[in-house]
Design brief:
The protein is mostly beta strands and 162 residues long. 10% of the residues lie in helices and 35% in strands. The protein contains 1 helix and 11 strands. The strands form 2 sheets. Strands 1-2-3-10-5-8 form a 6-stranded antiparallel β-sheet, with no helix packed on it.
Length: 162
């Protein structure tokens, strides 16, 4: 086999691989089962569970879609008691939050105080930048919905910045 023929065979094989489906699914791409066209979650059917032990007491969680521990799109809801406070923390990826019920306050930076926080009510939406130190308080019993790209992590930050 001459060199030109080898090159042609190599290029042909590479092109065939590219065209034949070696592509990876895109983040957030959903593969619906055959005959299914919609993912539906009814509010009355939500199965609330206690939040993981690494989060402060006073919250419950339900996963609406995806897996917050995987590297893909997810949507979760948190139900928070009126005394809930999430101490200073960061997330390695952007966090998109919609307040569904109640009222939430969010302040940025170390040493943030509730009096200087932005307040959000039902229907309000905000997005926190990755690695932004922020503190969250529920001003009343509240429910929020978070959508993001996993894995979702909360890294707590001590006042000395560690």
């Amino acid at each position: 086999m001459n060199m030109g023929h080898k090159r042609w065979c190599t290029l042909s094989c590479l092109l065939a691989l590219l065209v034949s489906g070696c592509e990876q699914p895109q983040v957030g791409e959903v593969k619906f089962p055959d005959g299914t066209f919609q993912h539906v979650v009814r509010n009355d059917d939500l199965a609330w569970k206690p939040c993981p032990p690494n989060l402060p007491a006073g919250c419950e969680i339900v996963v609406l879609e995806g897996n917050p521990q995987a590297g893909d799109l997810f949507t979760v809801r948190f139900r928070l008691g009126e005394d809930f406070a999430m101490p200073p923390h960061t997330h390695p990826k952007e966090e998109r939050v919609t307040v569904l019920k109640g009222e939430m306050s969010v302040a940025f930076g170390l040493g943030a105080v509730r009096e200087n926080a932005l307040t959000f009510g039902p229907g309000d939406y905000y997005m926190n930048a990755r690695d932004a130190i922020h503190t969250v308080w529920a001003n009343a019993s509240s429910e929020i919905q978070i959508t993001g790209i996993g894995p979702w992590e909360a890294h707590f930050v001590e006042e000395n910045g560690k």
